[in-house]
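Hey, resending since the last one bounced:
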Amino acid sequence: MEVALITVGDELLSGDTVNTNANWLAGELSDRGVAVGRVLSVPDDRAEIAEHVREYAAAFDAVIVTGGIGSTPDDVTMEAVADAFDREMAVTDLTLESVERRLAAIRERVPDREFDVDVAAEAAVPEESRPLVTEAGLAPGCVIEGVYVFPGIPDELKATFETVADEFSGDRRSRFLYTVEPESNIVPALQEAMERFDVAVGCYPDREADHNRLKVTATDDAALEDAAAWLLETVDASETPVRRNWD
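The structure tokens again:
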């Protein structure tokens, strides 16, 4: 399974907000054997969001879109996803009940505040989509044509993802190895491992830890184990972090 991630928000592009959602989602998907083929950040622009959703929905097994859902003026993601599939927006019994229940809980928790919320706008999702509701947030997410729309607030995102986590799985497996060999010295061995065992090998220098981290990825368990064993011997690697000791 190969998935694309689209994170929405002007604040991501301006540097006002760190894009922790993309990092968290990529990790969760990788842990499930899923390949993440794209990570894209886009502004709060309805036409641009719709264009990329349409493009990625045709190219990937699934698309996850996060951020920009709700009823504030810059929350245009849900409408953009509806545009991508030529759907109208609609309120369902499930989303309406969820929003009203969450609002009641908020008002009970903060009784001295007035909340002027457009309930219908908050509860609207694309027609014929599957709503995703949780107790973590107000606005619902949804699934439509393999496109999963999640909230952008991290706690709400995580809660929504958990409701559909079982729908994401793949056959990619990885192992991490560590070596103190200089990166330039191990290039030929890494290339040979990729060609000999049909695996992908990434090398990630960690200067603070004073070692290189190798990530070996494959879709075949035997190839993964054989490649890891060969690298452990060939580049003087270890399965646990090590430090240089050249003094």
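The domain at 173-238 is CATH 3.30.70.1150 (Alpha-Beta Plaits).

Sorry for the duplicate.
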